[in-house]
Write a structure and sequence with these properties.
The complex is a heterodimer of chains A (about 425) and B (about 300).
Chain A (H helix, E strand, L loop, with lengths): L1 H6 L4 H21 L6 H22 L8 H4 L5 H30 L7 H19 L10 H19 L10 H21 L30 H8 L2 H14 L6 H15 L10 H22 L7 H17 L8 H26 L7 H16 L3 H27 L3 H12 L8
Helix pairs in contact in A: 2-5, 2-14, 3-5, 3-6, 3-7, 3-14, 5-6, 6-7, 6-8, 7-10, 10-11, 10-12, 11-12, 11-13, 13-14, 13-16, 14-15
Chain B lengths: L4 E11 L2 E11 L4 E6 L5 H8 L7 E6 L8 H6 L1 E5 L10 H11 L5 H10 L13 H13 L5 E5 L7 H17 L3 E5 L3 H7 L2 E6 L2 E7 H7 E7 L6 H5 L4 E7 L2 E7 L2 H12 L5 E3 L3 H9 L4
Parallel strand pairs in B: 3-7, 3-8, 5-6, 6-7
Antiparallel strand pairs in B: 1-2, 1-4, 8-9, 10-12, 10-13, 11-12
Classes of the chains: A mainly alpha (about 425), B alpha/beta (about 300).
């Protein structure tokens, strides 16, 4: 039974894409990085990124769900559902991390790879996931806010432990691995011992009624419901994560968080689409919240300073990339391939920048960014003028194609319908429904 | 013969002090068809989830085939077919993969019937579920719920998303066939025509309790609606105090009250007790009865 469930697990769907991204991104990172970058150092930098990526992807694809409503109605013991889901996730984690190692190995022409870092990353990822899975064990899924709180807390913590630098010295395998093994075993033992026979769709205890708000007479702006929809739930967690990463100086991940926020907010705002509201205004409104937050964090926390123009450009590029993926299946095969390649190039851009940033010994602040820009400028200056022209023309054509595609998707009448259908067939309701 | 499904004093709330179910008690006998009716939020889905062992009641007990669905969920679910309106099949699977999985789970799976239903619903086994329309996905879910010939079929809004032809096809060709073979059926629906077509018995939920539990024929024949002029009674409570009155509400210039009994007898009774003229009593279709019993302005 467990095998049957594992092989049908929905997470396998995304592994192909992640692998493709890794194999495209790693050589790209090598090409754009400094000659001093070694396979080992490249690997060390890619590893935490991949680990974090696994966690984010996992949560986005419902890793907090032990079983779907559909599975809960079938004659399958809760224990089998739990173990199958755990196995799928841990196997997926190893799959991604091994691919990272293999891609780095190939890109670095056979230089040594820190296998111990790989094992530590996998162990920490597995413990994080099991810790999440152990919350509110009786229910079909862990509440989303708990999952994101855990991710927001443990993601940066894991990054700090694994990232090569002064903090890395604390992450000795002799300490990390036994702690991970013991924690994993203890959590698993506790979970299996207290496993319910069937998962429940709602908590056993009724929750207290929310108290009436004191500001009942408060006049709210007419756009209040729109703000509320855009900022409520999963999308706001991306904003929290954005603030955390920014404060840590990891500005390269900021546009990704903003893009995730915007895409999630778009889905939350689908009720607005049949109404006569200009969609560009909606997009602008959604962008305002993360950009204001980014600016605020930049001012309060100068460690994470990044040029505003750069941030806006990357953000818009990533959002375009996200939107371009809608309805790609309706395009003819060659166009679909182009869209997907563009998507990956756009999304791997920040990772390539990270790779360049990480190995000049300049940290992750404004100096590293300037150095990166200077380095890239020098790199481009070394290219023959004819090739430069081709490179620039190619980039412009690619950007124009991306813009055209996004415009087409965003303005098409059935875009909403597509988003709606996608939700209907992939989301599983575990909400309270009387 | 012991009941197939037995609810005894089920209580469930999601928010403290706001009970969704408040002491629901009824049972479904072998071979019986029971239609669960009620307004939105009356607790139909909650009750069905309790029966499936997917939601613990805070009070009371539920037995399915004499077993607790919480203590023996696998044994119970092997004998149940279940389809719900908000139940979503995995989008990345094909129909063939889905039915293969069900064949694996249910040894009694009827492959011939599966093929027959696939043809009848014009479904391509190689189609991915994510690519199906909402109605087609519902058809697949219903097919998965019935092809193992369950002893108890539990359906939460079975007609939702289906076009009228597909709904009738499903209800008549599949559910009735199962019922003729002795399966019990509990279903919730807002389509009164569905209830009239297949429902042998109607259980009406209101205010977290069973408001009415009657065979469909008795409901149609023994209940009538009295239209009482406003001037004849000071308020609805005055009419509700009359023997046999189930509910009264104000509509325009009249009181509309649902009574047990034949129209002529009820009309005579009201004329005597209220001392009023112009009272009319009529038997109404099930949908009208539903509105009169559960409609607003009481």
């Amino acid at each position: 039974m467990i095998y049957q469930l594992v092989r049908r697990d929905q997470d396998w769907r995304i592994l192909g894409w992640v692998t493709l991204g890794l194999w495209v991104g790693t050589p790209a990172g090598t090409v754009f990085s400094h000659p001093r970058v070694t396979a080992e150092s490249l690997f060390s930098s890619a590893l935490p990124s991949m680990l974090f990526g696994c966690l984010v992807l996992g949560f986005m694809f419902g890793a907090n769900r032990r079983a779907t409503l559909f599975q809960a109605a079938l004659p399958i013991p809760a224990r089998d559902l739990f173990v199958a889901r755990l196995l799928s996730y841990v196997a997926g984690l190893w799959f991604i991390l091994l691919n990272t190692a293999a891609a780095c190995y190939v890109a670095g022409s056979g230089r040594s790879i820190s296998w111990m870092s790989l094992i530590m990353a996998a162990a920490m990822g597995a413990v994080t996931y099991l810790a999440l899975f152990s919350l509110r064990l009786r229910e079909l899924s862990v509440p989303t806010w708990m999952a994101y709180a855990l991710l927001a807390g443990l993601g940066p913590a894991g990054y700090l432990v694994l990232f090569p630098g002064t903090l890395f010295s604390f992450a000795r395998p002799g300490i990390v691995l036994p702690v991970c093994v013991v924690t994993f075993a203890a959590l698993l033992w506790r979970d299996l011992a207290s496993m319910p026979k069937a998962f429940q769709v709602a908590p056993m205890d009724a929750v207290a009624e929310r108290l009436a708000k004191s500001g009942a007479g408060l006049v709210r702006p007419v756009w209040w419901p729109v703000w509320q929809s855009a900022l409520y739930g999963r999308s706001s967690l991306f904003l929290v994560m954005l603030a955390i990463w920014l404060a840590m100086g990891m500005s390269w991940i900021v546009p990704l968080m903003i893009a995730s926020f915007v895409v999630n907010a778009l889905v939350s705002l689908r009720w607005l689409w049949p109404l006569p509201v200009e969609r560009r205004r909606m997009l602008a409104m959604m962008l305002l919240a993360p950009l204001l937050l980014s600016a605020a964090v930049q001012v309060i926390w100068p460690a994470g300073f990044v040029r505003a123009v750069e941030l806006v450009a990357l953000t818009l590029l990533l959002i375009s990339g996200s939107l371009a993926m809608y309805k790609r299946n309706n395009l003819p095969a060659p166009a679909r391939l182009v869209v997907q390649l563009l998507y990956f190039i756009v999304f791997l851009g920040p990772f390539a920048i990270l790779t360049v940033d990480a190995f000049h010994g300049k940290g992750h602040g404004i100096h590293a960014r300037s150095y990166t820009a200077d380095f890239l400028a020098a790199h481009v200056a070394g290219v023959p003028p004819a090739m430069q022209a081709i490179l620039i023309a190619g980039t412009l054509v690619a950007l124009a194609a991306l813009y055209w595609l996004v415009q087409r998707q965003f303005e098409s009448a059935d875009f909403v319908q597509f988003v709606q259908t996608r939700l209907d067939t992939t989301e599983y309701s575990t909400g309270f429904r009387a | 013969m012991s009941p197939v499904l037995e609810f005894d004093g089920i209580a469930r709330s999601y928010k403290r002090g706001v009970p969704v179910l408040d002491g629901v008690t009824f049972s479904v006998e072998p071979g019986e068809v029971a239609g669960l009716l009620g307004r939105n939020g009356s607790g139909k889905t909650t009750l069905i989830r309790v029966a499936m062992g997917m939601l613990h009641p805070q009070a009371g007990s539920v037995r399915v085939f004499g077993l607790s669905p919480f203590e023996s969920p696998v044994e119970v679910k092997k004998r149940i077919g279940y389809a719900a309106e908000d139940q979503v099949l995995p989008g990345h699977s094909t129909i063939a993969q889905m039915t293969a999985f069900h064949r694996y789970l249910f040894p009694s799976w009827d492959t011939a019937w599966e093929r027959q239903l696939l043809e009848r619903f014009h479904l391509d086994p190689n189609a991915r579920i994510a690519k199906l329309s909402k109605g087609e996905a519902r058809q697949v879910a219903l097919l998965c719920a019935i092809c193992h010939r369950p002893e108890l079929l539990i359906l939460d809004e079975p007609g939702g998303g289906l076009d009228p032809a597909a709904r009738r096809e499903f209800l008549e060709a599949s559910i009735q066939l199962l019922n003729r073979e002795g399966s019990s059926i509990l279903f919730s629906s807002h389509h009164m025509s569905d209830v009239e077509r297949i429902g042998g018995r109607v259980v009406l939920l209101d205010g977290g309790k069973v408001f009415l539990d009657r065979p469909l024929d008795a409901l149609r024949e023994n209940l009538c609606v009295a239209l009482v002029p406003k001037a004849s009674a000071a308020d609805s409570a005055m009419i509700e105090r009359e023997p046999g009155c189930l509910r009264a509400r104000s509509i325009g210039g009249d009181w509309h009250a649902v009574f047990e009994g034949q129209p002529a007898a009820v009309s005579r009774q009201l004329a005597v007790s209220l001392g009023a003229n112009g009272i009319r009593c009529v038997q109404v279709p099930l949908e009208e009865l539903f509105v009169e019993l559960l409609g607003g302005q009481r």
